[in-house]
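Final report, closing paragraph on structural work. Over the funding period we assembled a curated collection of sequence-structure pairs, and we close with a single example.
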Amino acid sequence: MFSGIVAATGRITHIAPLEQGVRLTVDTDGLGLDDVIVGDSIANNGVCLTVVGIDGRHALFDVSKETLACTVGLDAPGEVNLEKALRLSDRLGGHLVSGHVDGVGVVRSFTRIGESHELVIVAPPSLARYIARKGSITVQGVSLTINRVTDIDEGCEFSINLIPHTVAVTTLRALSAGSRVNLEIDLIARYAERMMVAGDNA
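Its predicted structure, as stored:
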């Protein structure tokens, strides 16, 4: 489990093909790997990946074809948001995040408003019913609060306010109209739907 509070940004520096996916080499930069061992989990752009090797400040991750097919940002060199898995004693500064991406959204706009930025994203129909005003959502591994939701033909359009700190310390600063982003809905929404469906069938 994760909190969606990005600890550092790293960079995918090398991608090696595997029979059923790829092996990523990620320069973890400021994350620090002193307390990380092979087998630990680190979220990369919101995707929970298992450490399969460590070389100095570089961590290696195997990514399956299935994961590559349903996420973005893990198939080419570039910056990634990084977060180590939570310890039971850690503060939960964001919200409970599983690191299992539910779908890919498309940035409609990324606009500076005063000191902050407004990020507007279109989510696909399969996720629209889980996205609610003042609810939580994970974008590229970052825990964020939804300010506005509008249902549209393509699914739903939602907006988020990004404070200067979030823009400065995450890869969200590089987003622009047309960018594709990993989305994970709130776990509470997922379980609420399951309870409602199970209740109707009881």
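DSSP finds four helices and twelve strands in the chain. The chain has a mean pLDDT of 95. We thank the funder for supporting this effort.
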